[in-house]
Each structure stands twice: as structure tokens, then as C-alpha cells.
Amino acid sequence: MKFGLIDLLNLLGALAFFIYGMKIMSEAIQRVAGSKMRQILRSMTSNRFKGVLTGFLITGLVQSSSATTVLVVSFVNAGLLSLIESIGVIMGANIGTTITAWLISIIGFKVKIDAYALIIIAFAFPLLFFSKDKIKTWGEVFIGFALLFMGLAYLKDAVPDLKSNPDLLAFLSEYSNLGFLSTLLFVGIGTIITVVVQSSSAAMALTLVMANNGWIPFELAAAMVLGENIGTTITANLAALVGNVHAKRAAFAHFIFNVFGVIWIVILMQPFVAAIGSYVAYQTGMSPETNPEAIPIALSVFHTAFNIINTLILIWFVKYIAQIVTRVIKAKGDDADEFKLEYIGTGLLNTAELSLEEAQKETASFGNVIQKMSGVLRDLLSEPKAKKQRKLFKKMKKMEDATDHLEEEIVKYLTKVSDGTLSSEASTRVTSLLSIVNDMERIGDVFYQMSRDFETKYEDSKAETFTKKQVTSLSEMYKLLNEAINVMVKNLNSTYKNVSIEEALDYELAIDKMRNKLRKEHTKHMQDKNFNNRIGALYQDLFQSMEKIGDHVINVTESITGESEREIRRQEAN
Fold first, then answer.
1. How far apart are CA 342 and CA 322, in angstroms?
2. d(CA 382, CA 41)
3. To 10 degrees, the CA torsion angle through 559, 560, 565, 567?
4. Are 176 and 220 in contact (CB under 8 A)?
5. 339-358 tens-digit pLDDT
6. How many C-beta atoms lie closer than 10 Å to residue 342's C-beta?
7. Distance CA 446, CA 448 (A)
8. Could you tell me which of 84, 134, 385, 369 has the C-alpha nearest to residue 253?
């Protein structure tokens, strides 16, 4: 039997089938468990040991170490996890990802699950038509599970029988008797396969099938598994190249952890593999050295033992790993990076539900820019020197450009998120975030226009100044507005479902009341024959612009809570 182009395409198609099933199942589980995952991370990462347990539980649950790593990066960015705690979670994720190998070894090779796959799909398919999102998503979980094992069945059939293909066996045997070099070669092959297929689970499945069919002996299959551990970190590091400093550090810590483990175990490869072989032979009565059917279980034991031992060794050196990655990957503290995207665009996210976490963090960061613009307005109101005023005008312009950029990128990102399968709750969050960034961009526009008004005043009428009464009134109005913005930023950084509109509404009502008071006073002062019309017009524009910003500020909290100021006032009136 010759292994031709059609056979190769069948093999690639079977691998793609397996990866697709894994993707469907993993993404559906993440949608079901998304909020639970966040709760677990918040409550169970107080020390490195709890972090390892957390990483194991979440990765075992969602069957994706990448998803766990992404969530970890998100929490480091938000300040909810330290880098040290995040490294513990990543260590646990490495152990959790070994569950996939156990599923394939026990169910895929011991039970003919593919024979029941169509029955599972028949039961799961009607769930897709339920109106309740959770039931619908569970349908996707079962369908993904069935497709995964159907793909594995095709993969086993697509791998050629070496007894009928002695040429290929002879080719492999040339490279399997080189001792330590063979081990390094197959570590490299495992790494390359993982980088190419972009999934350590798929690479593991391919290794299990190759070993089960007798392509490669147990020791070299174990070497490939080690390579897959390196490959999955290279994939994460490539994705993190376009990410922020936190993403790069987390990915690099993962790389250090896995590469160190591979180095020590390659040195001890022969005694370690022999110990695993003896253990499996004792437990099952079959030696992986002589019986290919025992290799899948032996590889699963090897994979799990390696990751657990590596974690037990390195968990005591987490602080040193954190120091190394911090020194190697330094944060850029220059002003040019001050208003760049900080959380989204890492390329690491693989589900719409988890992507919303990043978008929400970026939106909160947007709020910080608005807070800084408020600070610039305060300085403009109090700074008498023209030279310093010009610096403030430039700073406000730079920030306004940043708000335009942030809105554009966040909207673009949320649009991509919307292309995925979303629950009704997630769809509501997308709509809410779109509304929030639109209002904050409008706030940036109004702040910039106010600075332009100041600039015009200083260019055209340098000798003219506000009256003491006008300065006092603008200062009082500004204080109310700044407090309202502080409340908005606090709400943006909170869990949305825990936010109350009451505090924000109090400031909005106070701002409206102050605007009405200043408008009446201004109309009265305009009748004074000594009234300066140019300064008066600027004064009126400023306090009305502050009230306009206040409207957008309350809109942000309305979008967070889902409550309407107008509706609340109507209810209070009734």
C-alpha cells in the first residue's frame, strides 16, 4: 500500500475534523461556564498553590489551556491578579490540559464512542432550537463532543497500517535508533506539529494514534509529547507579540516553565520512561515497550506525571520566574504609549464570551482617559500663563485624538465579537459597551471644544478675563462634573450587575440644577452695561458644555445598569 496525495488529504481532513470538534465543544463549554470561571479566578488565587488548583480546574472544565491563559492575562491587566499569582494559574493549566489526553486514551481507544456519536448528535440537535441560551449551548457541547470523537475515528483510519507499508517503517527506524539525538529530534517534531496545527490537543491526538498504530515506540512518542508542551507556548508567544506587556510576560512565563521542564526530563528520559512503562505494565498487564495498545494510557500517565512533577519543582521559584520575565520584557513608560490600547487586540482570545472581558477592561481604561481630560480642564480654568495654557491645549488635543482612536478600535473589536455565537446576556453587554464608548467619545469631543474656546479667548482677547463671580461659578460647576466623572470611572471598573445608578443620578441632578442657576444669573448680568459680551459668551459656552458632558456621563452609567434616567424621574413623579 502506497501513501499518496489522497491519503495525505484524508489524514489532514481527519485532523481538521478533530480540531473542529474540539473547538465547538471548548467554546460551548466556555460560554456555559464563563461567569463561573471568573468567580473561581477571583476567589481562588490568593496564593500560588490555590492558583495551581484554579488553573487545573478551569482548564479541565473548558478543555483549553489557551482560554485559561487569556483569562489570566485579562485579570493581570485589571490588577485582580499579580504576575506571581498568574504564573501559578498557568502551571495548573498545564496539568489541566492533560485531561484531554486521558479522555482520548480512555474513551477514544477503549470505547468505540464514534459508534454512538450520531446518536449523541440526534439527542443534542433538538436542543439547538430551544429559546433558552443555556440549553442551546449544552446542545453545542454534546455535538462538539461527538464530532471530536468522530474526527478521532477518522484519524485512526487515515493513519496508514505500517505492516502494509514497510518503506515508511524503515524510514522512521532510521531516526529512532540514534539515542539522545532521536529524543531531541522527536521533541522538535512534536513542537513543529503543535505550531502548525495550532492545538496541543490535536497534536497529542495525532501522537496517540501514531503510537497506537505502531509508527513510533513509546519513548519517542513521549519525546513528541514534550515537544508539544513547548509548541503550545510558542503559539502563545507568537500571539502575544501583538499584545501588551502583560500578555507578553504571561506567555513568556509559560515558555520558561515548559522549556525548563523539557530540559530536565530529556536528561532523565530513559529512567523516567522506564518507570512509567513499569507502572503501566503493573496496572494493566500490558507493557508499552512491547504492546502499542498500551501506549496511549502510558503517554497520558507520562504527560500528567511530567506536568505535576515540573509544577512541584517550579512552584517554589515563582517569584524568580516573575522577576526574570519582568526584567526581560520591560514596560514602556514613555508618554507616547500612554493612550494606546491596553487590553484588546492580543490575538489570544478564542471565544466571544471571554473577549467581552477584555473589551470591558479597555472601556474602563477609556474612562481613565476621560478622567485625565477633566484634570486638564481644571488646569485650564486656573492657569493664567499663556505658555502653560498652550501646553494644555496640545495635551487636550492629543487626548481627544486618543478618544477617537479608542472608540474606533473598541467598536471594531466588539463588531468582531458580535460575529461569534453570543448568549442574550452577552449580546446585551455588547450593546451596552458600544453605547458607553460612543458617549465617552462625545465627552472627549466636548472637552476638546472647550479647550478650543479657551484658545480663542487667549488669541483674540488676552487682556480680558472672567469676573471673580464667573470664576467661582465655573469652579463649582467643575467640581460637580469632576465628581460625576469619578463616579462614572468607578462604575466602569466595577462588576456591572453590582452598579447602582443612584449616586450618578444625584450628581446629574445637581449639575442640571447648577446649570439652570448659572443660566438665570448670566441672563440677569447680561443687562449690566459693563457686561463683557465676548467673555460672557465664553462663560456661557463653558458651563453649558459642562452640563452637556454631564448628560453623557449619566448615559454611561445608564448603559451599565440598563436603567433610564428619564424613566426613573417619571416613576418618582408618579
1. 20
2. 45
3. 80
4. yes
5. 566 667 545 455 566 677 77
6. 21
7. 5
8. 84
Confidence of residue 276 (pLDDT cuts 50, 70, 90): confident
Rounded to the nearest angstrom, the gap between the alpha carbon of residue 501 and the centroid of all alpha carbons in its chain is 28
Give residue-wise pLDDT tens across range 200-232. Answer: 667 777 777 777 777 777 888 888 888 888 887
Quickly list DSSP for 144-212.
Answer: HHHHHHHHHHHHHHHS--GGG-HHHHHHHHHHSSSTHHHHHHHHHHHHHHHHHHT-HHHHHHHHHHHHH
Residue 93's Cβ-side half-sphere holds a number of Cα atoms within 13 Å equal to: 30
Q: What interhelical angle do 65-77 and 5-43 show, nearest 10?
A: 40
d(CA 232, CA 199): 7
d(Cα 356, Cα 425) in Å, to the nearest integer?
11
Confidence band, pLDDT 50/70/90 cuts, at residue 486: very high
Q: Is 457 left (phi over 0), alpha (psi -120 to 50) or beta?
A: alpha
Total Cβ atoms within 10 A of residue 216: 24
**Residue 343 and residue 243: Cα distance in Å, rounded?**
8
The DSSP letter of residue 528 is: S
DSSP string, 348-409: ---SHHHHHHHHHHHHHHHHHHHHHHHHHHHHHHH---HHHHHHHHHHHHHHHHHHHHHHHH
Domain boundaries, the chain: 5-328, 337-573
pTM of the model: 0.58
Residue corresponding to grid cell 491596553: 342
Highest mean pLDDT: which of 4-8, 48-52, 455-459, 522-526? 522-526
Residue 353 CA to residue 272 CA, distance in Å, equals 41
Q: Which fold has domain 337-573?
A: Methane Monooxygenase Hydroxylase; Chain G, domain 1 (1.20.58)
For 72, 347, 501, the CA distances from 246, given in Å and listed in that order, are 10, 13, 33
The share of the chain scoring above pLDDT 70, in percent, equals: 72
Q: At 260, which helix (H) or strand (E)?
A: helix 245-267
In the chain, what's the furthest Cα-to-Cα distance? 107
CA-nearest of 109, 204, 207 to 153 is 109
Cβ-contact 354, 67 below 8 angstroms: yes
Spatial CB neighbours of 21, under 8 Å, sequence gap ≥ 6: 144, 145, 146, 147, 148, 149, 150, 151
**DSSP-derived 3-state class of residue 218:** helix
Closest CA to 445 of 322, 548, 324, 554: 548
Question: For 129-174, how does the pLDDT look when each residue is reduced to its tens digit (9 = 90+)?
Answer: 887 777 888 888 888 878 877 776 776 666 555 445 545 444 555 6
308: Cα separation from own chain's centroid = 26
